[in-house]
Amino acid sequence: MEDQVKIQFLLEKIKSGIRDGQDNIEDLLDTLDSSKDDLKEHGWSVISCLNDWLQEQDLAKRQIDVLLAFYKHMIDIGQPKELAYAFLESCNAFKNGTLYKLLVPLLAQVLCKLPPKQQSLDIACSTLLGHIKSLAWTSQTYSIAEDEAHPGLISSTGTTETDDMLIYVIDFANNFLSTLAKEALCNDFIQNRRWITIYLAQVLHYPMLYIHYDNPSETLVHCVGSVIDSLAILSPTLTYLFTIEKAADQPAISFTTRKLIAQPIEEEMCSADMNESSVSLPGLANLAYILFYENKYEEHVPQIMSSAHKLSLVFPSLSHIYIRSRNSVVALKAIRLLRSLLSPIGVAELSESYAEQTMIKDTIDYLFWSMQYTDMMTIRQNAAKALPLLLSKFNHRARYHLFKYILDDEDSPEILSYTYSLIKDFIHECWSTGDNDKGAVYALDLMDKIFLVPNGDNGRLIADLDKISAALNLARYLTSRDKSRSAPYTRQMNRYIKSYVEPIGNCLHSELKQLKASLENLDKGSDRQSEITITVGDEALKNNEELERNTINSCINKIELVLFVHDCLTDSLNS
Predict the structure, then answer these.
(1) Closest to 333 measured CA to CA, from 171, 508, 214, 472
(2) How many Å apart are CA 85 and CA 107, to the nearest integer?
(3) Which of 407, 282, 375, 415 is nearest to 337 (CA)?
(4) At what angle do helices 358-373 and 307-324 cross, to 10 degrees?
(5) Residue 391 in contact with residue 399, Cβ under 8 Å?
(6) Helix ranges, 135-217 (H)
(7) How confident is the model over 26-77, as pLDDT tens digits?
């Protein structure tokens, strides 16, 4: 009971001093100095009770100055361990940005007075990250392409509160750098250096991964530079950070439904817990984007490093973010970075062992997914450029296995049509580089997967027109390229004529005949129920004569174009 009376007496004195502002700050400090022993014994309780009162106050600057003087006085006389927990509790409780920013540097000051083993940097860092992730960052429309606006992007400037808070959170880590850098061989310091590294990587993840850097504010430039300079002090080289995380950490992803299936990093972002064995993969990916796409802070990157090695270092964190993110800004950054990493690598430089990695196949799936389903045109265009660039970096045997993987796993006519055109380029490259024998083997095996008559009704045939046209164009290219019929794959065309070309021609002519009959019935105003069903998103539309006529005409035009290619191929084979 006596303790409660002492705490209440001290609280009333402190509250009164804060209310009066700087008018009687000396009297307040004299009172506190005379109660030094009580404050030292009950410091945590006094600060905790004061927090409840502070959250209800709207303090002016002069009142905040008094509060700061009180906190500093407590640091001078109090027990560092208790004060550290008291300040952490305060940071966890305060929603007021001004009070929070007041406490962050004081927390760092108290922790620095403790031995490294007692600093509890994991708890401190998690508390600060939790506050950053709870802030309402500015979400606004931001132009990424000249004619394309992207909603939902974190502003490069944010609000004054969030900008300032980011600076304070980063500066918190900087308080420990000089000590952690000097005491490199002490186990306790090594552990704390690890915590600060994890902490800074988390800041690179959120919010920095979601901020577009094309037009950065001065605050953002300062924050990014401060984080990277700090990481460079904590690590032998910045590229060393990419060796900490292994590819085994990658999630199992399935694209068979053409949707991303995994816990998105936006959900992962909501957790402020810090795992001592894990540096944030999204944070490392953003670091790679800054270093290798924007080509900044080159002084922190080893100059002697092959392009292929650089790709292998970055790929685990890179694939982690674009496979798991639903955010367009993150996806755009990832694909830009991928293209930037691939460009310096020589054609056919990567081996089949590299191609067998799961993340390479996941990357191919993701790029196809982006080309089909992403709303943002800039991402679709970048993905369409990144895919052939990626495939071109593998040697012929590796590329053959990747094409085989696509053909075995894919059922989208649009994707398969695009793949057939890439295979045509691949076979042409085999010829051009004198790799005729291997090219023949690869082509024969792939052609067995390409020249397959689609199963199903006529609706399936119409849906597959792009794929059929691409297959016929491939066959036409092969026969025109090898007019002597000396290559094994062109000698096999007689077999494909019987198994594919002729049946496809018959199916196309039959379908064309039916469509023209349906169109004729429409023109005559026939009462016969239409045989054409138009679906959008798997839902059948109500019959509309004008829409039906336009749809039939469109199908007729497409089939006639494919038949033209078919007839040209047949003429070429018969000549």
Answers:
(1) 214
(2) 9
(3) 282
(4) 50
(5) yes
(6) 160-174, 177-182, 187-205
(7) 777 777 777 777 787 878 888 888 888 888 888 888 888 888 888 888 888 8
